[in-house]
Structures are given as C-alpha cells and as structure tokens.
Amino acid sequence: MAIMNEHTVAEADRLGKVYGDGDAAVVALDGVSARFGRGEFTAIMGPSGSGKSTFLHCLAGLDEPTSGTARIAGTDLGSLDDEDLTRVRREQIGFVFQSFNLLPTLTAWENIVLPLSLSGRTPEKAWADQVVAAVGLEDRLGHRPAQLSGGQQQRVACARALITRPEIIAADEPTGNLDSRSGAQILGLFRRCAREWRQTVLMVTHDPLAAGYADRVLFLADGRLVDEMRQPTPDLVLERMRRFEPQEVR
Amino acid sequence: MPRNAIRSVLAHKARFLLSAAAVVLSVAFVVGTLLYGDAVTTSFNRAQARAQSDVAVKVEPDLRSTKLDDDVVARLRGLPGVAQVRPIADGYAFLVTKSGEVAGRPERAGGTSFDPGRHRLGAGQAPVGEDQVALDELTASRTGYRAGDRVRVIVNGVVHPVEVTGVFAADDPRLAAGGSLVAFDLRTASERFSPTPGGYTAVDLIAAPGVGQESIAKSVRGVLPPGFAVETGNSLNTVRGDDKLTSILLLFAGVALFVAVFLVANTFTMLATARARENALLRAVGASRRHVLRSVLAEAVVLGLVATVLGYALGIGVAAVLNSAFSVLNGPEVPLRVFGLGALGAALGVGVGVTTVAAYVPARRAAAVPPIAALRTGLAPTTKSLRRRNILGAVLFLLGAAVTAAAIDSQDLIYLGAPLLMLGLIVLTPWLAAGFTKVLRGPLTRLRGMPGTLAVENARRNPRRTAATATTLMIGLSVCAAVTVGISSAAAKDEDDARTGDNADVQITTIPFSDLSSGTVADVAKVPGVRAVSPLTPVAIDLGERRFLSVTAVDAASVRDFLPLTVRKGSLDDLDKGIAVSTATADRYDLGVGSQVTGAMRSVGAQDKPVTLPVVATYDVPESSGQAALVPVRLAPDTASPQTILVKAAAGQDPVQLRERLQKSLDNPVLTVRTKAEAAEAASSAAQSFLTILYALLSVSVLIGALGVVNTMTMSTVERVREIGLLRAVGLSRKLVRSVLRLESVVIALLGAGLGLLAGTGLGVVGVLSQDGIPVVVAWGQLGVFVVLTVVIGVLASFGPARTASRTPILTAIHADTE
C-alpha cells in the first residue's frame, strides 16, 4: 500500500512490537508509521519507555517488529533472511550506539573499515580520507580504543558508520555518554552527513540540544507517534517535551 | 559460607560444568585404577602363591643339574615331625583343545605328577603309564573333555596322544591364574619334566599335627647335601603384590589430573574476571580480602566434592569395565571391592585437593580486586607484564633442554630433563601464544579476511588464558608424541631385525613358555616344497674358569643360505668338522682359523660333553643376527631345544603355501609358523598394539584438554557477547560469527597441539637416541593424525559457543551487562 516517492529512503508502516505474551505482554510500539527522505536528519524523542529506541531498532533491522513493515530503499526487511539482512546492515545502514561501539582488539583504523573488511572490500582512498578528516582522527588511526577518549571513540564509531556510504545512519543516543563539546562535534558531523552527503540520519535522543541539530523531530509516547516538529530549536523541543511530564506524574 | 558457596556454584553451574567434568574424569581415572589394581593384586597374590596351604616345607634343587631323586626323598621320609612326603615333577604341558588350540593361558599351562594328596579325583581314575593323563576340572569344563576322551598334550615341543582317565580338583596357583593342569603318573612326569634322569623338580613335606614349619625346615637342612633350596610354606606364599600395572595406570591418571588442574584454574580465573565487579562491590561494602578469597575457595571445595562423588561412581564403572575387559589373569573372577579406604582417600584428595589448589591463585587474584573497580564501567583488562614469567620460563626451558640433550649419552637424565623442559614450556606458553598468533595474523587475514583477523586477535587478547587452554591439550599430546616416537622406533627396529636377521623363507618358533623339539627339524625336512632346513639351537661351551662361549648349533650344509654371514678367513665348507666364530668372538677369546676351542658342550637336560673343535672360519654378521659362534647341529645333544627352525623353500615354491602346508603337516598349536613377511609384520604389530593401549590411556588427558578448549570458548564467548552483537550490527552474518569463533578455537587448539607435538617428538627422539642401536623413526603419519584430531577438537569445541553466540539477538547482546 505504501507508495514511496523517490526520495523516501526508509519507511515504517504501522510498526508494532509486543514483548512477552498473555498477561505479561508489554506493548512497546503500537502502530507507528513514518517516512524518512533522502538527506533528512530526524531526531526521535520521547520519555523513557516511549518506544523510541525500539522504533529505531525495528526500522534499522536490528529488531523484528511483531506487526507492520519496515522498508529500507523499498525492501521489506521482514522478507529477508539473516544473510540478506546482514548485508543490508553492512551496506545500507551505519550504526552508532551510546556506548561500546568499538572492538577493543582492533585499531581505530581497523574499526573504521570493519564493515568493508567484513565483506572483503578495500576502502576507497579518497572517501576514506574524507571521512577520517571529517571526524578529525588523522593522527589517531593506529591507536586501540583503550587509548582513545570517549569522544574520540565515538568519532571512530561515526567514521565506521560513514565508511560504506550508507543511505541511512541510525544513531541510538550517540551523545549520551559524551561531554557537551564532544557531543557537538558528533552532531555537527551528522548534520554534514545529511546536508553534504545526502544521507538519511535517524537519531534517538532525549537531549533537546541534540534534537536542535535535526531537520525534524518525531515525538513518541506509549509506543505511538504523538507529534512531529519541523525546523526544531532546542527551546521548542524542550517546551514540547515538558508537556509529557504531567502525564508521567499522573 | 557453605550455603553461599553452594548457591553460587548452582548459580554458575553452566560455567562450572566443564571443570566439574574434567575433575570427574580425573577422579574416575584414579579411582578406577585403584579399584582395578586392588582386584588385580588380589588375583596375582592368589596366582603367585608357590605352595599349597598344607605344605610345611618345599625342597627344590638350586641348580638344574642338582639331582633330586629317590635317594633324597628317602632321606626326607624318615625325618621327625613329617607326616607326608610328596615328590613332584612339574613343568609345562600344553593341552590341545578340540578346535586345535592351546587350552588356557600358555604361560600357566602346567604339567605335573598326579598325587592323591594334591589332586582330588572327581571322576574317573588316576593316570597310569605314558599314555594316560588326568585333567583339572576347570580345564575339563572349558575344553569339554571327559574321562575316556583321547587328547593331545604337548611337552617339550613333542605332541603326545594320550587318554584322559580322570578329572580332579586342585588347589594350584596356576589354575588361579587362568592356566591348565595336566597330570601324568609320577614316573612319566619325572621323565618329561625333570632335567635329570629319574629326578623330581620338588619335594613337598607335610607336617604332622603340632609341628612347626621352621623346625621341619631345620631338620631338612640338616640331612640334605648342599645344592638344595629349602623354604617354608609360609615364606613361599608371602608374595609382594605386583603393583607395576597400578603404577603405570596411576602415572597416566596423573597426567590427566595435571591437565585437569589447568582447566579448573582457568575456569576460576575467568570467573574472577567475569565477577570482578561483583567482588569489588563486596569489597566496597566492607568485605575483607580474606572473605572474598575464602568464598571463592569454598566454591572450589563444593565443586570438588560434587565432582568427587560423581567421579567415584564413574570410577567404579571404569574398574568394572577394566576388570571384565582386560582380565589380566583370566582365572576365576575376582570381585571388585567397591569401597577401598585408599581409593576413597585418593578420590577426595584428587577431587577436592586438586580443585582447591587449582582455584587458589585465581581466588587470590579475585580477592585483590580494588573496591573502586565496582564503580568503573568498562574495566580495562589488567595486562600484568609477562616479563618475569618469561624469564623464569626461558631459564627452565633452556635448563630442561640442556639436561635433555645430555640424556643422549646418559639416559637417566631424561627423567629430570623432560619435566623441566615441559614445565618451562608451560610457563613460556603465554609468550609463545602471543608470538604464534602474531605470526598467524597476516596469513589468516589474507586467507580469511576480517574474520581471520578477528579470530587471531581474540586468541591473542589474553595470552595467559589462551596459554592455559593450549596447555591442557599440550600436555596430553606431548606424551602421545613422545610414546609414538619411542615405540615406532622400537617397532621399526624389531621389524628390521626380523627382515635382516636371517634369509629363511619360513620361520618356525613357539608360543612363549613352550619349547621346540629337535625332532621337529626332521619332520619339517619331510614336507614337500622344503629345500633346506636348519635349527638355530643355542648351546654353550664351558671354557673353564667360568668362561662360557654361547654357540648356535646349525645345519652345517645349509647355514650360508640362512644366515647373512660374510666369511673373513677360512671356509664354512668345513663347518661340519669344527667351529666357526664371529670376528668379535675371535677377538674376545683370542681365536683364529687354525686355533682350537676346548671345553665342555653344555645343554639343558644333558650331560656335559668334552669337545675339542678346530676353528674353521671367522665371519662378520649383522647385529640383528648376532651369532657369536656356529657349530654343526650333530654336536648339540638331542635334548637341546632349537630356538628357531629356519626353512628355505624349493625353487618356485610360494612361501605362504609352504607355510600353510607346514602348519598342516606339523599340526602342533604351540608352533608359530610364519613367512618372512609375516614375521616382520608380527614384530611390529606387537609394538603397535602396545601403542594403542597407551593411546587409550592418554585419550582421557586429551579429552580433558578438549574440554578445556570448550570451556574457554564458552566462557570467553559469554564475556564477549556485546562485541559479537556489535559485529552483527555492523554487518557480520551469523555464519561468519560462527566461523570467527571456530577459527579462534582452532588457533588455540593448534597452538597447544603444535607445542605438545614438537616437545613430545623432541623428547621421544632423545629417548630413542639414548638407547644404542635403535634408529629414530618419527611417524609423520601418526603425528599428522594428531594435528587433524586437534583441528577437529577445535572445530567441535567452538560448536556450542558459536551456536549460542550467533543466535543471541543483536540487541540483547549489545545491551548485555557482562562487564
């Protein structure tokens, strides 16, 4: 039924996710539909337990929805087997997590090119240089994660997400563990991804400042899409978020 | 504390499972060995008793030439306190079964003189004359013979057709040992078994009631001339248990145990890492180091106790299987004593002791965790420097290598060198692991891409753990390699000797404890297809002044066809008239062609015969034949038994056919008739079957080593679940996750196997070199099999962990709290 226009890169069609069954069932997602266009930077927000992370995970092929469909570039993820799904993750999506983003046994450079090495490809020199320059890690490439600061580690993770030129970057609280300066570097990088390289950035965050970097914000509550904001500013987002609070108290 | 320990063990039971399995296996090995050894000792003791219970004193000739005849018996008869005197003629007699085989165990195939005091007739009558025998009831029931049957009995290599006149019960140690007993009348037995005409092999004296054994022995000594051994029944039956078998089995159990220590230690080390934060929290809320240490040790004790109980039960099973499968004596069955105090103590010592000792160092490390570690996220792995360890390892290893190298000249040194070398290697393994994986990283990456790199990096991230795991395999496989080299070399030498020792087409020997009859030579000569036949009959010439020349009596006409001789001087054509000596013998006794050998020809069961023989030739002979001197067979007494009979086939005669014809026409189950090829094969197959037994014993150690790899793979996969999740998120498929873990597991296993096989082969080679005259044979095929086995172990060990890891949902993995 979904009619995708050519700019739609990812699409959620009434995504639902229920954990457990019977009396113990917990509805994490309750029919969320949304589209994400090329070059669009979207922040996904909501109070704890709103289902925002689950939404991202289902959309990006990390988790299986119990109902509805997630499509990446027109492909229904539910129709793919593990091999194909793995390839989609490796080639079409770049992931950045809140913490534990790197393999401790590999150097920064090896971590960055990991998705390429996994499919036996060699990095394209010009693009790799550009990515490394964009994250500002030229002189840190031989270091192991333990020798890098938290901000540097997260920038390595971003570089890794970019190295395959994925259409989508999926970030789950990427700045959650960072100080504000390091966080700003990462968010700036994401904006550049969207503007300059026309990538679709999906970012789950609870930080209004971070959401301020995005082109639009989706607000989730109790597993439903409750609001959407275009051209957000931190103040507007904070204002909108406050409206969730009384509900929580009640 | 005990309750907490039990709870903790239960909570982590999956992690303790493999350690427990290793300890259970070791305990079972030890317990099985001890219980089985106990049963074997009991039956050995029964079998080794040399006198029957009613015998007060046994008199035997000291030398075979001492005459123990009716004169001696008459003297003993008159002694005070002696109720009964039984002259006995004992020897080997082989009863031929209905299917043409030897009844019972050949080494206990007894022939004896019938005596109503020793043999209680159950059916029929006592044997009388040369053509009658009585059989013991066990043998009679085994063979199905009854009084009245015609049977064949082989004594001194000669087949005697006789009639069974009776079946008796007897209290004879040979029967307890699974042998048979054929009784002749006293005169016949004396003729057949006594080395002296009209003589006996022993006299038993039975005491009158109330008379002590010692007092009889004293009076016996008083009336006998020198040349007799007089012993009381009690002293004859006090036998020391044969513990050799138990010791050997325990040695292998020890190896298994040693391997298990590493597995247990590794488990507790990994647990300490996994629970570092838990322990730190305990410390933060006020637990002392000692408390943490004790709580870990308490877990070890609980684990050890559980494993001991299970191991003991399994050990009983092992002993029962051993007892029925390898019944050493094949005699009346000896029941297992299931609860020996020694076995119980050993089980507890092994099970609990080893577990606790193995857990001690990891427990101390767990206790040393600083309380602040509880608050840190992502605990950086403590990479304590290996420097001191490496230096110690290198010193031990080099010292061991030096001592081992010195063992080439002085073989006992290997018992010091080998343990030192292995210990050094164990201490050095982390360093070697780091080196090995560093070398492997490049090739594996080229070969397998990023999965290769990941596998190698995982294997090298914790060199101590990798090393401890590899060590579990290394120990077992090093012993495997060492025994393989040693036994293959010995087997090759035996086979070579069998091939080059003589040039016969067919060779006739006997089963152990039997003799070849000199008459067989004439029987062989009559068989069609035989071109030449020669006995090799060992005799000796007493040169006087306690110098003896060992001589082989041969067929003078055909000796050159049979033995690989190179004549140096003189000619063997004249051998019929004199003696030929090897160049070594010529040098030693200062002989040469033209000189004479004068002395007394000596052989068992015959009078010394003075001879004066001219030396007709000197010759060189390979060591594998080694005849020091040759005389014509006519000089050897008829009673001299050939060691081997060599047969040359007529032109165009197939040796296998000839062998079959010989077997058929000689029709004597104590004879072993083999073609040259068969003899060579038999020589090496004996060693091969010994090797197989050793492999079976070592398989327990290798199995525990394999469990060690499974253990490490399981635990490190659990530790790394987040990493695996991340890898899956960035594009590693399930298949590749499995392949990474499989590679890692194989790398670890190969490290252990490589080191073990190298070290073991080296030690085996030194062991062989230290024995003179044995060429070193490295069985590459066998070693290759070990390498393949290791890869299989590696692949299998990764199977479970890889399955679990690849199935864990990515999100669960990423959010897992394993640190």
From TrEMBL, chain A:
Listed GO CC annotations: membrane protein complex; plasma membrane
Residues of the ABC transporter domain: 10-247
Database matches in InterPro entries: AAA+_ATPase, ABC_transporter-like_ATP-bd, ABC_transpr_LolD-like, MacB-like_ATP-bd, P-loop_NTPase
Molecular function in Gene Ontology: ATP binding; ATP hydrolysis activity; transmembrane transporter activity
Keyword set, alphabetical order: ATP-binding, Nucleotide-binding, Transport
A Pfam match: ABC_tran
Domain of life of the organism encoding this protein: Bacteria
Transport recorded as keyword: yes
Disulfide bond found in the keyword field: no
PROSITE patterns: ABC_TRANSPORTER_2
Xref: PANTHER family: ABC TRANSPORTER RELATED, IMPORT ATP-BINDING PROTEIN
Annotated protein name in UniProt: Putative ABC transport system ATP-binding protein
Originating species: Umezawaea tangerina
From TrEMBL, chain B:
GO MF annotation, one: transmembrane transporter activity
InterPro entries registered for this protein in UniProt: ABC3_permease_C (IPR003838), MacB_PCD (IPR025857), Macrolide_Exporter_MacB (IPR050250)
Entry's localization field: Cell membrane
Superkingdom of the organism of origin: Bacteria
Bilayer topology annotation: Multi-pass membrane protein
Domain (ABC3 transporter permease C-terminal): residue spans on this chain: 251-370, 697-809
Homology family: Belongs to the ABC-4 integral membrane protein family.
Gene Ontology CC entries for this record: plasma membrane
Species in which this protein is naturally found: Umezawaea tangerina
Membrane in keyword set: yes
Keywords: Cell membrane, Membrane, Transmembrane, Transmembrane helix
Domain MacB-like periplasmic core positions: 17-221, 466-664
TM spans (from-to): 16-36, 248-274, 295-326, 338-361, 391-408, 414-440, 467-487, 690-710, 743-765, 777-799
Protein name: Putative ABC transport system permease protein
Presence of the UniProt keyword Transmembrane in the record: yes
